[in-house]
Amino acid sequence: MKAEFSNAHDTSGTTLHRFSAFLLASVVLILVILASPSWILDPYNKLFPKSHETFEITPVTRENASAIFNTVQGALRNKNAQIEPIGVSFIPAYIPEGTLLYHGNGDGQIPEGPEWIAMDHEFSQNFIADRAGPHIGHGHRSSTRAAEKGRGHPGRFHGPPRDSEDKHTSLLTFRVKKPLSRMILLDGSSAAKTETGEMDQQYILAGIENVSSPFVGERESSVKICEWGKQFGLDGYIRVEVGFEVVICDFFDKLELTSNVTLDWGNNTLNLPLELTDEHLMDEYASLWDSVSAMGSYDWAKMGNVHDKREGRILLDFSKLQTMLNRTYVGTDPYTRRIYNVSKDLRQDLKRDLAQSLEGGVDPYGGTNWQLLTTEIVDKFSPILQMINSSLSDEHSDGVSKAKNLTVFTTNFVRRFLSWEEGASIEERILAAKNRALEQYVHPLQPLRSKSDALILSSIRRVTQMIIETVFDSFFVSRDILDDYFLKNEIDFTGLDELKYQVVDLLEVLRWESTYYTCSSRCSWDEICYTPSWGPSPLGWDSSFGTFTDSYGKVRISAELQCVSYKTILALGHKEW
């Protein structure tokens, strides 16, 4: 594989050179393979079996590389999708046999056309639990949350709007009897039902130019997307709201109904009448049910929070990823970028490529799970970069103290790769060390299977190269300062100013807010660190909870996330609708 750092020794040649003293001519090849796993895993190496087509490293700008890196890292992670809300990519996905899926509606019937289904029963139950039947306190002081939740919204999934007061809602459980092997994950907050870009991917797949409202648009889109997908057997597509939901094109094809629960009315569940004659007790009764309703919303939010780490029941095939990134210019800000306005030719090209990639089905087991690499990179380097940035930004710290901090933060990493080699110049050793670091963190786990694999590999390499460069620069800038300090020479601190700019620039390009945004205090056992969402949610749809408006009028998620319990939801009085 061609090294990203120029003028470096060829890593495979270096490996052979190091082991040449130990190898007998008859077993050279075998020992090299055993001793150099990262080298043999290089899909460009002639010793590794290749597919019929060779996929070369793809030129990619650092901004696009970062966006593709974040697409891979954020896939199936609720928190990432909310903090990077406007998605621009389409990732073929696979839901294994045996997976349970949940659908709530007002008639207990299996949907006959495209419909929404949730990965968590709390998700579906929260929308339909109080949609039908009378409410506690009806005619006196209706339970606020239950009355509002029961109101529903025209066109919203999980069944029709609120039914008459003598009806019941149902929660259906389905089991996947045959793998859903032709699914599409839409990245970003793709179930937000907004007009600001979160729905763009669906409009492109559906071929919709203009919609009267996001609600109408998502219903119309689901029908048109499933019609488009009939040509290659599309099973459906996956979106995030608070937790993940799936649009199933045909409920009778690969699903089987395993449970159909008709939900009783709230008062019957508590074995109490709708109203009490004692007004004081009636207020307590209604307040109690408000708390029960708030707890249902909290349960939904908690499951979404669980999937901040990742929705593990869905598998991905990154080798079939299709994206507008690297096809055309896409803005770097995931809050403002749009793809609905790309040319018709680009739309058609992407849909054609996506259809072709799904035609043979998704194989999530045969290629490289690139998210394993991105996660290791983020876990390793995000703390280091934060520590470096924090130290350089400390106005109360002098230059020597900053240099000492940087030395503490970076020495062990640099030392691990900076090999002592007699006769080699320091420049040669540094370049070789950077390449060793790059090859350790960026290597395919399987041969590349597609141009998408090559694009992802190229992007991860570009991002990791920038990070390694900055870590090494931090070490050597601080080393030069401390050399002069301890040897009592005149010290030049200008390198720290240049390094500070370099680090800030890198962090702006990386956009790792989904990693850095967190609650400053540890949440209690009955709380979650809540990431706000952009569609219907436990804390309200248009809620300002956990967000701020920037100088351009754009609402964004605050870096300081907040701990939330059911009492928070109850106190705010927000509803899903």
Automatic annotation (TrEMBL):
Family matches, as InterPro entries: YOR389W-like (IPR038921)
Keywords, comma-separated and alphabetical: Membrane, Transmembrane, Transmembrane helix
Transmembrane region(s): 21-41
Region called Disordered, residue ranges: 132-169
Compositionally biased tracts (Basic and acidic residues): 160-169
Protein name: Uncharacterized protein
Organism of this sequence: Cyberlindnera jadinii (strain ATCC 18201 / CBS 1600 / BCRC 20928 / JCM 3617 / NBRC 0987 / NRRL Y-1542)
Species lineage: Eukaryota, Fungi, Dikarya, Ascomycota, Saccharomycotina
